[in-house]
Amino acid sequence: MKKNLLTAVLSGLIATLAVGSLAHAAWPDRPVTIIVPAGAGGGTDGTARLLAKQLQDEFKQPFNVVNNGQGGGIVGHTAIAQARPDGYTLGIVFNYYQWKSFGQADINSTLFTPVALYNVDPAALIVAETSPIKTAKEAYEGLKLAGGKYKIGCGGACGGSWHAANAELFIKYGIDARKPVMVPSAGGAASLQDLASGGLDMVMASLPEAKALIEAGKLRPLMVIASNRQGAPFGNVPTSKEAVGIDYEGGAFRLLAGPKGLPADIVKTLETTLKKIWDSAEFQDGMKNRNFGMKWLNSEDTLRFMQAHEKSLAATMTAVGLAK
After folding, report:
1. Which residue, 188, 209, 244, sits at the end of a domain?
2. Of 66, 145, 270, 291, which is most buried, counting CB atoms within 10 Å of its CB?
3. Structure-model confidence comparison of residues 82 and 249, the more confident one
């Protein structure tokens, strides 16, 4: 009888483990939430919806985008980090480490399980079409000699992605990044309009944000902070290496991640599927039609990218006097 009881218990245990294994292998077997720490209609939201549509096509389950842009993105990033690590809550992570430098929130790479980085939009330096500054080299020499005479728009919050990329390049060139008068705004569009109307000398922003005003003949890009020239219609804009002799890449990035502890098999499934999506004509065309930059890093390389972002941004925020 004891033998029969033991056999029954072992059989039940094996069956339970088998069912659990099958259930886990079936991920996803219900809808998945993708948290976007930004409002609807912006760039992060746009890229997330492109991904969600194709993830849904691949996995035959809904991938629902939920916007949570409160606190400039702090609330949404916190929600991703605090989610249950079961694969049913993922999120889009973008430039985040400035919040720690500002003393606002300790958002860092240890809180997440990165799946893949899929997008980098390089920062650019832009002037009004009527500006006497004709080249980035000329702008940098002016800033080096008398930085305090220039008013520069941050293209959003000072310390954000556009400002940080430009400030780091200033430092590499030997410019005292504390001297220019840095002007924050509600976003890139506000800074660019102020530049077009003569209220600023330069603006740090992205080329896609400035596209309409560039095509209208009101603004002129001096350089893009990237290793390669961008696609049409910005193919004539020189890179930082061409313009000021420094090969550097900086700007806004977006990556897909889950909370810390996301199971390795789910990460691998997502990474493999995301690479398939990233390589597809549908995704490539959708991103390029919106002038989003294309960059791919796998899970391990994305973690290293995040760690490098934290190290470089901490140093830059200290150098420009914004670290708390």
Report:
1. 244
2. 270
3. 82
Q: Are 270 and 255 in contact (CB under 8 A)?
A: no
pLDDT at 25: 55
| Cβ atoms 137, 244 nearer than 8 A | yes
Which ranges constitute the DSSP H helices of 147-291? Answer: 161-173, 188-196, 207-215, 240-244, 264-279, 281-289
Q: What are 64-101's pLDDT values in tens digits?
A: 999 998 888 999 999 999 999 999 999 999 999 999 98
Residue 63: left if φ>0, alpha if ψ -120 to 50, beta else—which one? beta
Amino acid 156: pLDDT:
85
- Look at residue 173 and give its three-state secondary structure: helix
Start-to-end CA distance of the chain, whole Å, equals 71
> What is the average pLDDT value for the chain, to the nearest integer?
91
Q: State the CATH number of the domain containing residue 90.
A: 3.40.190.150
Tell me the CATH number at 126: 3.40.190.10
* DSSP single-letter state for residue 238: P
Overall domain count for the chain: 2
Q: What residue spans of 158-225 are helical by DSSP H?
A: 161-173, 188-196, 207-215
257 and 117 part of one domain: yes
